[in-house]
Structure formats: C-alpha cells, structure tokens
C-alpha cells in the first residue's frame, strides 16, 4: 500500500456505539494523518520514498521511519477491518477453517485475543496473523510492532494505545477490546489471507 490515508468504508459515525464519531475524528483524522505526514517527510529523498509501506515495515531498521511506517500500516489495517455494527457476519471459508483448526472455536480466538490485548503492558497492538508455517497465531506487539516484521501475514489487530479508546472508554481498556467484536468485518480480515 502507498503511504496515504485510506478511504473508510463507513461514515464517520458508522461504528457507533462501539467507537464514537469523536474518537474516529481524532484517531483516524488526526493520529493516522500525523503518521502519514511524518512518514512522507522522513522518507523524502531516501531509498524508502517510493517503497510500499509494507516493504518499509519489513526492512527499515528500528527508528523513526519504521515507527511511522508501522503506525501507518497498523492503523490502516485497523480501520479497514471494521464495518457498521448491523453488518457483522461470522467468519466463513478458509478463515473459519483456520480459526476452528487452530483455536477450536471463534469464542476461543476472541478470548485469547482479548487476553493478549488487555494484558499488553503500555501501548501497542494485539495481532492475529498467519505464520510462515500456515498457522494462525496471536501475538502482542509493543509500540508500532507488526507481525510482518517476522515475515508473518497480519490479519486482524486490536489497537491498545490509549488514543484508540480513551475518549469513549476512559481507562476501561477491557471494555473497549470486548466491544470491538461487534464491528469486525470478517470478510475484510479473510481477504488478507
């Protein structure tokens, strides 16, 4: 993907009551925009300037370029995995097969993702990814971390930086994490396989 703001597939208030329009305005419109702008400024005139964001995340050394590229990629995947609450459907096809093979049930997957997200110390992300070996795995990544860095395929993420939930949930991270299942677009997640 290019370093640009993704077009959201729902209106600004389309994720309510799980994520408010106010949170979306700040999280998407201000935080993600800042990462996009920072990455453009940091990569101007460098070997990274024309690279796709995924390539930067996979190859850049730790530091400002990686951090901003990671946050652009992470936030883009995050925002594009949602749908309005009344459109949520269960996982199907290969994704459903992998979930049941590797976790036993969707409820087990959700429970393990919640545990990873709620238990992450400080800021970062909980990820469901497809490993290089072809199994689904859940990981915790601090700051701008992404499973792509290890060569895995990121599928679904939970943002536990405070800016993702503080307007709506204050310090109730667990409430935020558990409510996100009400807006997951499983087809969008499946398309990442």
Q: For the record, give the distance between the C-alpha atoms at the N and C termini, rounded to a whole number.
A: 16 Å
Helix content: 40-55%
Please give the largest β-sheet: 3 strands, antiparallel
Task: Indicate the overall shape.
Answer: globular
- CATH homology superfamily name of the largest domain: Iron/manganese superoxide dismutase, C-terminal domain
Overall structural domain count:
2
CATH class of the largest domain: Alpha Beta
Instruction: Output the number of helix runs.
Output: 8
Please report which band the strand proportion falls in: under 5%, 5-15%, 15-25%, 25-35%, 35-45% or over 45%: 5-15%
| Mean pLDDT rating | 98
Question: Structural class, please?
Answer: mainly alpha
User: Strands across the major sheet, in which order?
Assistant: 2-1-3
Label the CATH architecture of the largest domain: 3-Layer(bab) Sandwich
Element-level helix/strand string: HHHHHEEEHHH
At the fold tier of CATH, the topology name of the largest domain is minor pseudopilin epsh fold
Runs in which pLDDT lies below 50 for 5 or more consecutive residues are none
**DSSP strand count:** 3
Radius of gyration (Å): 16 Å
């Amino acid at each position: 993907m290019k370093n640009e703001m993704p077009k959201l597939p729902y209106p600004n208030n389309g994720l309510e009551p799980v994520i408010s329009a106010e949170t979306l305005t700040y999280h998407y419109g201000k935080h993600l925009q800042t990462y996009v702008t920072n990455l453009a400024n940091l990569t101007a005139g460098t070997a990274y300037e024309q690279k796709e964001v995924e390539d930067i995340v996979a190859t850049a050394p730790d530091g400002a370029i990686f951090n901003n590229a990671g946050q652009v990629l992470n936030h883009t995947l995050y925002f594009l995995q949602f749908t309005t609450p009344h459109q949520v459907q269960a996982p199907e096809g290969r994704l459903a097969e992998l979930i049941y093979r590797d976790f036993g049930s969707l409820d087990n997957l959700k429970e393990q993702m919640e545990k990873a997200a709620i238990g992450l110390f400080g800021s970062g992300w909980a990820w469901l990814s497809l490993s290089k070996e072809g199994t689904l795995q859940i990981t915790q990544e601090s700051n701008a971390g992404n499973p792509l860095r290890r060569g895995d395929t990121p599928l679904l993420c939970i943002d536990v930086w405070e800016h993702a939930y503080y307007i709506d949930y204050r310090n109730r991270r667990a409430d935020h994490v558990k409510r996100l299942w009400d807006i997951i677009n499983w087809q969008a997640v499946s398309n990442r396989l």
